[in-house]
Amino acid sequence: MLSFEDAQRLASRLRDELGRAIIGQQAVVQEILTVFVAGGHCLLRGVPGLAKTLLIKTLAQAVDLKFNRIQFTPDLMPSDIIGTEVIEEDRATGRRDTRFIPGPVFANLILADEINRTPPKTQAALLEAMQEYQVTVNGMRFPLERPLFVLATQNPIEQEGTYPLPEAQLDRFMFNIVIDYPSFAEEQRILTATTGDDEPVITPVATAADIEAMRHLVREVPAASNVIEYALRIVRASRPGGTAEDGVPPAVRQWVKWGAGPRAGQALIVGAKARALLDGRAVASPDDIRAVALPVLRHRVLLNFQAEADGIDADQIVGRLLEAVPAP
Fold first, then answer.
1. What domain range is 124 assigned to?
2. How many domains does the chain have?
3. Which residues in 42-148 belong to E strands, given as ranges?
4. Global pTM value
5. Do residues 160 and 273 both lie within one domain?
6. Each residue of 191-233: pLDDT tens digit?
7. Mean pLDDT score of the chain, rounded to an integer?
8. What is the distance between the alpha carbons of residues 49 and 117, in angstroms, rounded to a whole number?
């Protein structure tokens, strides 16, 4: 059984190991660790070359978990992700049997690189795995090992030849994290560290059982009724068809087509609990809700054409929501 203090030390050691390979990006690392210990999945948006692959690979090494990378391309098939059945013949008896060959989804940490470059049919191959921790092939169900953490990346620059993720799949991602360019000092350190002959040595500091124990511990972190109500009010205020009781701000009625669903409220509360645990606090607070609101809601608020014409993005709408909904 993992104690609260053990979880604190483990989280600190994970940050230290990630810091050996990842220079800067502390906010991104914190958000990814929040999703990881909460048992969710993450969508990471950023231009090429910002260490997205290195980050998830280093995390796998620090926790001693199986890591697989899937490069999403237009010709990728669902069987390339979940696996396929093959027919094998026994040369001695001539008997033929089918055998399932697991695909790369049978891992603990999965990097779905440039997920929007493949058609929705192939994107959907991840849905069952992310939500139910299993895959189904020809009516047979194959369970996946825990923990399972999917980190999908999107390139925000090149949009030709891409397939936007359906809202149903976007909603499966607990956080949508935006990774930006490093600062001048951080980029200088990156250039110095990566152009030499030394490579950082990552030491495993936790097991799969430790991470699963942390996931259960996150769920046990208490959240007061006013904190839960605060998360609920933020979510309900994001829906343009809401009632006067929901306190929908004018910005939402003007620029939002569809608001966030109940899964957003769950992500706000669990994310707040995970953030409190990582920060060494035993209780989730309204500040934790506010801190995770942007990565939780930016991909769950669907804007209308008027917002695009006016140059309004989802981040601005979330900011308006946090201004309009008073914290307890």
1. 4-76+104-195+205-212
2. 2
3. 42-45, 67-71, 83-89, 96-102, 109-113, 134-137, 140-143
4. 0.88
5. no
6. 888 787 777 788 888 888 888 889 999 999 999 999 999 999 9
7. 86
8. 18
